[in-house]
Amino acid sequence: MINVTKFIYSPGxxxxxxxxxxxxxxxxxxxxxxxxxxxxxxxxxxxYLGNRKGTYFVxxxxxxALLSQLSMLFINSFGFWWTISIIFTDETISNKYISYIIAxxxxxxxxxxxxxxxxxxxxxxxxxxxxxYGNLTNLICSSKS
Length: 145
Hints:
Layout: E1 2-5, H1 13-32, H2 38-51, H3 56-88, H4 95-123, E2 127-130, H5 133-140
Antiparallel strand pairs: 1-2
Helix pairs in contact: 1-2, 1-3, 1-4, 2-3, 3-4, 3-5
């Protein structure tokens, strides 16, 4: 799931701190806006917009954090609104609902652990690429900007 690779150059202290903060932003937003899935995405998007003209290392990690939060938005929003529909309508809890919630919890937990690990490694100047998000980030983020 996580691939640790050598980055093109050795990032400076300020770069590693900003890159690490891009992952920590989503964790802080998770604590603040636990019940609303959009809060994490908005916090990460604001941090991304503030650093999109930074160095390649910072931009790359801000982009990867943003992409992971975007997918989390879809997974968590679906579970959130399904739960709301069960609470406020006559829909009942089904095996499909329980399965989805368990899968969403596993996905959230693995993303939470990967985020903490990546924030720590990135702070040390180690480049960490997540499976799927790393490849997508490489396509989106250009080293020439």
